TrEMBL record:
InterPro entries: DNA_brk_join_enz (IPR011010), Integrase-like_cat_sf (IPR013762). Keywords: DNA recombination. GO terms for biological process: DNA integration; DNA recombination. This is Tyr recombinase domain-containing protein. The keyword Ion transport does not apply.
Amino acid sequence: MSDDVWTLPHEWSGAGQRQAVSRRTVDFLKVLPEGWVTTDVGSREAIRRIKRIAALMFTQTIMLAKQMRGPPKPSTWVALNHNVIKAASSALQVPAVVPGHSGCPDGRPIFRHLDPEELKAAFQANKLGSACAIPRLNGLLKAGQLDDWPASDVHIKDVRNREVWQPFEDDFVALSGNAAMWMAEQLGPDVLVGWTKIRELRSEPIATSNPLKAKEQRAAYARDWANGMKITCPVLRYKFQVSIARHDGTRSGWLESWDEVVPHTLEGLAAILQESHFWIVSLACGPRNGELVSFPRDCLRLTANGPLLRGWTFKLSDSSEPRDWPIPKAAVKAVKQQQQLAELLDPGGDRLFVSFKLGAGRRSERDKLRFNAHAFSDRTSTADGRRLTDLCQGNVHSHRFRKTVARLAALSLVGASDILFDVFGHRDPDMTLAYILSDPELQDEMRQVSAEAAMMIAADAIKRIDGSGGPAAPAVRELVARYMASSAETELGENSIATVAQLLSQDGRVMLVKRNVLCTKTLNQAGPCNRRTGNPDIGNCQISCVHRLELAAARQDHRLALERALVGYEKADGMMRSWWQGQISGHLLPFPDFAAEALKDPRVRDALEGIDVSHLLIEETGRVLNGNQLGSHT
């Protein structure tokens, strides 16, 4: 307690920028207003009092809102103290009053005597930090652990007036994501080959002690770097801000062709390449910045269920906690390329992403590396000279990647909240829903996308209705026939298909049960899935439901499933054989022609021995398909 500056051990902080000394240090001398002398009695009392408040925030479990909360994480505690110290410095400038009884022996109170307006003025300097600090000070007062606070229900209106990060706009994501993928897939291999050669040439020994001759030899190495190198991507689709060769020397500019490339250019391109990998991984699985920079170099895991990135999470854990992030195959190549780049820059290192500083500077950066999300978009422009950052509405911030992943998943995936709950590593489903719903227009957009997707699914079903099956197929074919008769068309055009699809989907309400299987139940119809009107319960869809429409492509699904069912039947005995018989019969139900074909197989006939299967072969016309294959089953 005697020290006026407290610095937390770096082991207590997470990865990335939290390792910086400034993020681990609390300077209590900053509580003194301008003109106060450090050695004065009043100054020492104010410093000791604010230290006591800091110690209480670091150690005490309190009731915060309606939930018990333990002490904050060390990095959060440092940030809280920075804000409380700023507010205290402002509060100490309010004229002193005669203090009442206090459990703290250190001089006048700092906050207790302030009226609402004075307290608001003290905490206005940092609205976001104050919104975190004030509830904790309320809780300390309520618990009887602090008396230098006006009330236990202090609430400063609009104190938390921060911007909620929104997802990136679709156009910006499409353009910047494409630029990152192009950089990684097209330009990246050339950059790594050239940069590797440069580093090899620079590492060759200089066969002279003469400084001028050594300089000439190094220059010769630099000139020879491109000899024999085959450029696989000679045309640059985007421009990159790097050191380039001009007639008046080397200077920073926008690279437009390989003719302008010099050795320093390759190092700049390598840095942009790493930033493109950052973009790809961020858009693939939305890790937090600290999680991203802490990925180990051997983080990639290729499993039977798909590729994973194995790293650590810090947000919801008192210490680092290992976890896996699923990533798409498109991101695997970027991770492998980043591993090559990292090994070139920091041989034998343990991190996937590395600093481009030299020597000891790189080593000191390993534990506090932090990506600026806007670095790639700042240094990349379109062919017509538009810088990507300038095309983004608002700041290019790392947290917006997570919001973007949440938005795109919500628009494109059924059960998105459960999927994102796992991908983001949340502990509370409400956190995931908050991400999804952070965009106020998302719900309307989800409804629009859902309706448009339903219309596309219905239109596709209309186009392929002749080969479709399932109990609903006859009704859909009848709908198409009635429309053609009323419109005097011999073949449905695109407009007519759209009209019939609108009728079938009830203006965008058709449900996709699973791949190639649709539910055509209207809102005023009941079905076996839920036995009432309203939306269907697709999780309880039954193969014999009159509302079930199976597209022609479902034949192959049934064919594969039938093979698996036959294998299961042959291995089973007793009641399990009856269960497998039901599975086999169910796969024959949607398509009478497929059933007729399958019943030619002796294995199918043996499995269905003694079961009447004639209903499986009835066409819409009522005709039973010619079935010498029925044998003893009819």
